[in-house]
Structure formats: C-alpha cells, structure tokens
C-alpha cells in the first residue's frame, strides 16, 4: 500500500499559554505601543530586548517590526549610502537583497557551495567591490566563520549577519549573529520564535545602537528602550539620524518572551526531527545530503538536499510525485519564482552576471520545512516517501 503523509507543512505549534496570558494582559490594558509606559515601567518590548541581549551575549538588543526591517536598519546604521555596493549571498531569500535595495544600495551576489554556504573563494575575489557584507545564513547553514572573518579583516569588510534561520545556532560555540558588528533575526511565523511578524537586532557598538534606536522610531524617547547606550552617544547622532519607524509593539513582545525561555529546547526538538529525516534519506541513489561541519551547532527547522546535475524535468517530477503523496518540497531551480524560492537572477532590480557554478547548485536544491507539529514517526514516513520517489525518478532518468 502506498503511504500518504497527512500532515500540514505550515501548521505551527500554539503560542505558549504564558504568552497568551501576557498578550491578553496587554490587550486588556490597551497600551500596545512600545513607548506607552507609566513611570519606571519597562514594558514587554523593553524586557524582551533585555532578555534577548542576555541570550545572545550582546551588549544591546532592539526589537523591531520584521527581520527585513532589522537588516535595512543595520545598513543605515553602518552608513551605507545610495549607489554603494553591498555583498550578499546568491543563495538567499528576497528580503535580503530587498533590504539592500531599500536603502538605495546595489546588491553584489557571491556564489554558493555544495554546503549551501557562501563561496569564500568568490567572496575573496569580490571583496574589494564593497565595504559591507550582508551575510545570509540561508536555511540555517553556517559557513566557516573563522575563515570568513579573516577575509573580512583582510579586506576591511563590515560584516552584518542575517540570522533569520539561525537563531539558537552557533559556530564553535559563538552564537550566530555575534561574529558581525550587527546580527539581525526574524520572528516571522516560520522562524524559531513566532510573533507573526517581527525582528531583533543586536550589536555591541554604542553609536550603531544609538542610530538604530532612533531609526526605529524612538521620537527622542530612547531612554525607555530596554538596552541603550549613554545619553551622550544619542546626543552625537540624534539630529543626523532619520526616524524610519519600525518598532515592535508590546503585544508581539508578550508573545515572544515565553518562547525565548523555551528556545533551546525547541532547537533540540527540531534537530531530533532533522536527524530522522536525514538518516532516512542517507544513501538514496542520486540524492546528495548536505553534510554539517562539526564546528556548527545548527537548528534543523528545515532540511535541504541536492539532486545535482539532474534534468529540470526530473527534479520537477520528484516535487510533483512527493506532493501527490502529501510531502511539500520547494525547488530553488525553477525558471520562475514560486512562493519564496526566488533566486539571484529573479531579482531584476539587482542585475548580476550569471554564475554557472552556483547555478548548478541552485538548480539542484530541494527544501522542506520541519514544523514541530510533526512527530518523529511523521518524519520517518516523510523520509520514506522522498526516498521512494527520488529513487523511482532516478531509475527512470538513468534508463
């Protein structure tokens, strides 16, 4: 009998009861705006900022409206100007080049390796074209951060990290987002904490933080933020920094704070599911597992594998056959963007030379979410279905 998976790839776990109660308290009070505070009250947003700074080991944290907004704020805070080039990954999602374009800067794409990380050789070649690298830890894959930092140091590149998929991850024990001058995180529904939309920004730099707070829309109420530099730092920048409002509100912060307490356990739960799927796929003919380096502490909230050098029809057949059996795979190699699977040559506002080596890899990437609503048995069944359908199509392609 042919197995059919009945689960939902977009169904998330419920918000913790503590978060629901905290959100109801905010709603009953009616004071959702982050600066609607009384006396010495810190508020949910300020408390989230304090707690996230402690969690990441950062001096400062800023809660904002989205991960994309955090990245655009980061670019403005380090002084990126219209027309300047910013390096970023060829394998990423649209909000990353979108953030660069939103400040009038020009994305310059750097290649991807079979490990699904930024190509460090290509980065070294292109490093002289820009002053800033917006590094996307796409789908939770961390590059060799020591080697990358050496390139940044050699070429005087300012590093900003997009950690939308790596909240809770680390390289050699260093939390993702802490190697760059700024780390940017997302709390959109499909990320590691869920507030629908939302973002967080961390840094140790006093002046960058002061600019970011004003950029986020503090209306000179910056002393009410959860983590702030000294007043004299704001005095240096407050008249030169525009308000580009993108604050987080108390309702979303109330939902997030209990999730932050549970984050490490949630990451472990994702990894349990990831390993079941990975083990089930290992050894499938025609399928390449993306191996994780020992130095990387990853969060397996999604899984990727490669069908390298397959025909487009063969890959599409795998996607279609798996979907019939209830398994939703996303393909980054399609000729047209589909859902979130756009790629560097889809973004016509940021034209790029073709990158044949990266195109080969992008054409073979299949991606799948692993919601925590799936059981380990669900994950084993999903792996069996993928293995069977990849095997059937591979055998047909070979003959």
Which key terms come to mind for this protein?
single chain, seven-stranded mixed sheet, four-stranded antiparallel sheet, globular, Aspartate Aminotransferase, domain 2, 399 residues, 2 domains
Can you describe this structure in just a few lines?
With 399 residues, the protein is α/β, with parallel strands linked by helices. It is built from twelve helices and 14 strands.
Walkthrough of the structure:
With 399 residues, the protein is α/β, with parallel strands linked by helices. It has two domains: 17-257, Type I PLP-dependent aspartate aminotransferase-like (Major domain) (Aspartate Aminotransferase, domain 2); 263-398, Aspartate Aminotransferase, domain 1 (Alpha-Beta Complex), CATH 3.90.1150.10. The protein has helices at residues 17-29, 43-56, 67-77, 95-102, 120-126, 145-154, 206-215, 231-237, 250-281, 312-324, 356-362, 376-398, and strands at 60-64, 85-89, 106-110, 132-136, 158-162, 170-171, 174-175, 182-186, 199-203, 288-289, 296-297, 302-306, 330-331, 365-369. A seven-stranded mixed β-sheet has the order 1-9-8-5-4-2-3, with helices on both faces. A four-stranded antiparallel β-sheet has the order 10-12-14-13. It has a three-stranded antiparallel β-sheet with strand order 7-6-11, with no helix packed on it. The longest helix is centred in the middle third of the chain and has 32 residues, at 250-281. It is globular.
């Amino acid at each position: 009998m042919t197995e059919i998976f009945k689960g939902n790839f977009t169904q998330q776990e419920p918000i913790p009861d503590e978060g629901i109660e905290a959100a109801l308290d905010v709603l009953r009070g009616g004071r959702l705006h982050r600066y609607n505070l009384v006396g010495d009250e810190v508020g949910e947003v300020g408390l989230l900022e304090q707690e996230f700074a402690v969690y990441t080991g950062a001096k400062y944290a800023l809660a904002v409206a989205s991960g994309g907004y955090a990245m655009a704020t980061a670019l403005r805070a380090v002084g990126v100007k219209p027309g300047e080039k910013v390096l970023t990954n060829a394998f990423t999602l649209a909000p990353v080049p979108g953030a660069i374009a939103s400040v009038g800067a020009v994305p310059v794409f750097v290649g991807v390796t079979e490990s699904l990380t930024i190509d460090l050789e290509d980065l070294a070649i292109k490093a002289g074209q820009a002053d800033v690298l917006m590094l996307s830890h796409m789908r939770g894959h961390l590059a060799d951060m020591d080697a990358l930092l050496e390139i940044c140091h050699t070429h005087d590149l300012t590093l900003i990290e997009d950690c939308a998929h790596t909240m809770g991850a680390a390289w050699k024990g260093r939390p993702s987002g802490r190697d760059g001058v700024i780390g940017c995180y997302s709390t959109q529904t499909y990320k590691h904490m869920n507030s629908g939309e939302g973002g967080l920004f961390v840094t140790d730099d006093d002046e960058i933080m002061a600019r970011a707070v004003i950029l986020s829309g503090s209306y000179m109420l910056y002393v009410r933020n959860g983590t702030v530099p000294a007043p004299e730092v704001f005095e240096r920048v407050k008249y030169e920094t525009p308000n580009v409002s993108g604050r987080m509100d108390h309702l979303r912060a109330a939902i997030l704070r209990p999730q932050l307490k549970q984050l490490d356990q949630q990451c472990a739960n994702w990894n349990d599911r990831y390993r079941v799927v990975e083990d089930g796929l290992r050894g499938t003919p025609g399928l390449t597992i993306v191996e994780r380096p020992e130095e990387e502490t990853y969060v397996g909230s999604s899984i990727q594998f490669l069908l390298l050098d397959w025909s487009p029809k063969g890959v599409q057949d795998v996607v279609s056959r798996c979907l019939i059996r209830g398994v939703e795979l996303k393909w980054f190699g399609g000729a047209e963007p589909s859902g979130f699977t756009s790629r560097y040559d889809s973004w016509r506002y940021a034209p790029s030379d073709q990158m044949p080596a990266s195109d080969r890899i992008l054409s073979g990437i299949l991606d799948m979410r692993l919601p925590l609503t799936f059981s380990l048995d669900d994950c084993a069944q999903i792996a069996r279905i993928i293995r069977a359908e990849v095997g059937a199509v591979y055998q047909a392609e070979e003959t």
